[in-house]
Design a protein that fits this description.
It contains five helices and no strands. It is an all-alpha fold and 152 residues long.
């Protein structure tokens, strides 16, 4: 076992121990009284710990991705091509999307309270159109995969 892997193992055990202590402390302080400040404090502490772990995990994932991209340039080119393809689908879907508010039973309530605006309608329409494009692309890829195997 190298020093780096030993250090990572120790760090993981420390994170596990801190998480276990926080969860046990929360479970011990659970009460039926919703206004109990002790229980609220432990809930907040656990939430903050969760946020810290989430930020650390996301940061490590981004750094690992960047490291992989720098060390393997051919893989990076393929990834960039797929990102450009997704961006093209998003731009085309956005340009085809309409911002006209649809008419259905009860729409007046959503328009009146501001939850349904032309901008929201445009984003929802963009998401739907992009989903249709990607679903169609997946179906075409499955069909092409089956057909291309026949001709080999």
């Amino acid at each position: 076992m190298t020093k780096a892997s030993r250090l990572l193992t120790i760090i993981l055990w420390i994170i596990l121990a801190v998480s276990a202590v926080l969860i046990v402390s929360l479970m011990v302080n659970i009460s039926d009284n919703n206004a109990d400040p002790t229980m609220g404090g432990w809930i907040n502490t656990n939430l903050v710990w969760t946020y810290i772990l989430m930020v650390i995990g996301a940061g490590i994932a981004l750094l690992a991705g960047l490291f992989q991209m720098v060390t393997n340039l051919s893989s990076a080119k393929k990834s960039l091509v797929s990102l450009v393809a997704i961006a093209v689908v998003a731009v085309v879907a956005y340009s085809l999307a309409s911002n006209e508010i649809p008419q259905f039973f009860g729409v007046e309530k959503f328009v009146a309270d501001g939850t349904l605006t032309p901008n929201i309608v445009k984003m929802v329409d963009t998401g739907l159109i992009a989903t249709y494009f990607l679903f169609g692309g997946a179906v075409l890829a499955i069909v092409w995969s089956s057909i291309s195997q026949v001709f080999k």
